[in-house]
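**Tokenised fold:**
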Amino acid sequence: MGGRLGRVGPYALLERLGRGGMGEVYLAANRRGEQVAVKMLRDPLGDDPDARLRLEREVRALRRVESPYVAQVLDADLSGDRPYLVMEHIEGETLLDAVRRAGPLAECDLISLAQGLATALAITHAAGVVHRDLKPANVLMGVDGPVLIDFGIAQVLDATRLTMTGTFLGTPGYAAPELFADETVGQPADVHAWAATVAFAATGRPTFGRGTVESQMYAILHGQADLAGVPAALLPLIRAALHRDPSRRPTAAVLADRLARLARASAEPAFTSGGRRRAAPEEPEETHDGSRARIRDRSADKAAADTAPGLPTGSAALLVLALLAVPCVVVSLVFPLATFAITGTLAVLTRALWSGHWLVRKRESPRVRGLLRVLTFPLTLAGSLVSAVAWPGLPAAAAAFAALWLTAGARLEPEWWTQAVPVTVAGIAFGVVTGGIIGREVERVGARVPELRREGLRALAVLGGFVALCAAAVRAVAFFV
């Protein structure tokens, strides 16, 4: 198949879709006639091995990213003078065009947009990728929600040039203040751009004004964001994400988690490319990368995030935690060593639950995922039990022994297990270490598996330490009464 604009490798160029700081983007077709988007980088790599290595590393990371909110990288050729990337072609107008045409998004649509973009950033950040140029023009309003495109890969090549010449890379109105202040630029810069992009979708106005580049830079550096008209439900998150200090901004994973709660509370359907309600889900879309076929139903993925069975969330998780804690505290008071068994059991159960979600994360159908989680639960439970002996078992046991030794006066009695106070203190140390390790696992996995209900899993992870603390409090009260 011949292209009107020539060929790039096995791809026939059909139409130029756009041009930007990175280079040019073309609609192309592979040998099967399937349409893809080919992004040709602006400048040749030449003989710069460091630049080529940085680019290859980031492209490899991008190819590992799989999310309905991120345009997938299907192919890449970095060996030629004009490196190019091949990404899935997604129909739909940009957020910039949609807002210009139809005005600001409704609140429920805005929450869906904010959640989708935060989830996309959380997943790409977990893969070690920073977008660097998030803005309304780089968000496609697909039929099943927002899709993040145009990662700032070319800026990896320009890092040295930026340092030497001070040339600004990116879009000033959506850039983070650290880009203008010669500070370290990383994942928090994407969070700042997320806030500016969501605020634009809420108001229809550029968040930092329509003036010159210099005036926008001044407004960004001094925190002069125009947030009039942003819904009250989103305002605290957007203000936190626009904080001048990058370390004070929430992570994308935290934003996605909190927005998922808002989305469930609103219980509104997703929006179409024009910001209007979608009556029914579309049929799955089949895409190819030349060596394998992949069927993705974005609407099913989003529905799974809201309807997948799992532990309760929010206040319900706290209620379950309280109900489970009462009998566990009673048992721990009667048998102090039971605290270790309770903590270990909860840690193994938590790991088995998130492992089940992780194993089936690439399955498209929510029903299939749920069935496989049930069928594989005995296997994941056994694997979690074996692995928990080493981690977090060993460090938690070491902390518990140290606490027991110190509390017992640097010596152990022959029947040390009958000493309630040292055993209780050791149980607290065991529970804190175990809960901290398992909780971090849940956060890391949750960034890759958006439908994972992290609140309930976090509650299970810390329940052992909570039980030990309650038992210690009861013993202290009994001692002083």
About this structure: Residues 154-168, 268-314 have pLDDT under 50 and may be disordered. The radius of gyration is 26 Å.
